[in-house]
Amino acid sequence: MEIIRTVSWMKEAARGSRAENHVTGLVPTMGALHEGHLSLVRRARTECSRVFASIFVNPAQFGANEDLAKYPRTFEEDVAKLEAEGVYAVFAPEPKEIYPPGFSTYVTVEGLSDRLEGKTRPGHFRGVATVVLKLFEIMQPVHAYFGRKDAQQVRVLQQMAADLNLDTNLVVCPLVREPDGLALSSRNVYLSAEERRGALVLYRALGALRDAAVAGERSAPRLQQLLVDTIAHEPLARVDYATLVDAETFEPVAVLGGRPTYALLAVYFGKTRLLDNLLIEPVGPSGELFCSL
Amino acid sequence: MEIIRTVSWMKEAARGSRAENHVTGLVPTMGALHEGHLSLVRRARTECSRVFASIFVNPAQFGANEDLAKYPRTFEEDVAKLEAEGVYAVFAPEPKEIYPPGFSTYVTVEGLSDRLEGKTRPGHFRGVATVVLKLFEIMQPVHAYFGRKDAQQVRVLQQMAADLNLDTNLVVCPLVREPDGLALSSRNVYLSAEERRGALVLYRALGALRDAAVAGERSAPRLQQLLVDTIAHEPLARVDYATLVDAETFEPVAVLGGRPTYALLAVYFGKTRLLDNLLIEPVGPSGELFCSL
After folding, report:
1. Does A164 contact B134 at a Cβ distance shorter than 8 Å?
2. Could you list the residue range(s) of the whole structural domain that residue B90 is in?
3. B11 & B150 share domain
4. Which of A77, A179, A272, B40 has the fewest CB atoms in 10 Å of its CB?
5. Residue A32 resides in a domain
6. If you average pLDDT over every residue of chain B, what do you get?
7. Contacts A–B by Cβ distance under 8 A
8. Could you tell me the pTM of the whole model?
């Protein structure tokens, strides 16, 4: 499995794959790989004849006071995992290869990028959209794979791809959890043992919401209160947001109803900020709800 | 020659051209075609096996108080001219095809976009960069052709193409003038007969600057004063800017010297705002100047 360090080499590899009529897949990552990432690779392997991954801790999506410097870096292990999963090549550029001196072009998805994650992390989605567009231009994947754990990120990227008429198809894959329910995240390593136990409250809160919704509760304020009350039982947790939003607009909803809805959580444990979500989709003429936790 | 109205049809045509290994060229226009545009088509025809043009008056690059509604539209004549020049197909979408409801993604080239044209026309280059990126994604040209008359626009697009790792090669073509020296522009039709005569002062001013520079004047402030003084003789002219800038950064220069430099003019005649420029390039070890008017 090749480790590709430069844009020009990666472009050459992408051109070669296209010339050989490969259906190419891309799994973009910031490294520190866990089973969530590997589930994306496995999905890509079923749909693509050649799968590329990228490992790039993207400075443009970190705020000045965020964890860029201490973001976990486990490059050798990551490469071994990707190779074991049958990845064809890994694009792992240095920051200056992606952002050379004088770099000044940014992609912004307005509206969607300003809410929730975008409010807590100004500029975050601008950094994400810019680097993903660049990866698409460099790697020209037919399909690109993203995890639903970062639900708003996926939605921002879908809007970008539609608005800019990109040819790459975005594939959204299920959230992957630890056996006890904690959503997998590279940032989970930041948690102390006590915080790690406390963090299970996210899964419990979303599970309680799911149960209430399935039992017939349709009021978003009451369901939201259920999230907040459940999390309040965990003294180490500090809620950033806990809300129900339309899965397309990410605007708050008042009532669970005809449209797909996300219950979204962003909760601090010490300095570590964890995300989790529940996707609620109406199915069938009876308006039954299908919940993906 | 086909007139292509939809993105999906245009993408299909682009895919077809790629499958047949055509070297495709794109001449993006807002219609109201003149010899400047046609010179781009002719250049494209020498370098490409298949030339597409686009005709799209891009709302995103017009400010609220600008001339979007009255921008000259001469579609039938434009199509006849392009067909006569051997253009393969014209992409001429309606605005809602390019900016469907909910559209919210924009490309910004920071720094470069804020000066000169960008200062007088806030948001202009954001609109230009966004639509050109979209045209590139939809039409996938190998080469795309732009006129040097809009020097800053070309520079913004070059920066975008480099920063976003685009595969399209930007070709910058010479400025084309009327026999009496007026730079061709679709907006020249706005000029009254008197303004049309007065507008020749732009050519005279840049010519005077060239003569002074070739004669040895290297001081940018003195050369700039020469522009201003020359234009001051024309009572109908009102200067927006008249300046010498580095051709890469579009920052003001103090001295003509080792780097390519633009003398840039933006001058109002009534409500009509005209652009013109002179490119000054040092050549050879002696530092002689080569001027393109």
Report:
1. yes
2. 2-173
3. yes
4. A179
5. yes
6. 97
7. 68
8. 0.97
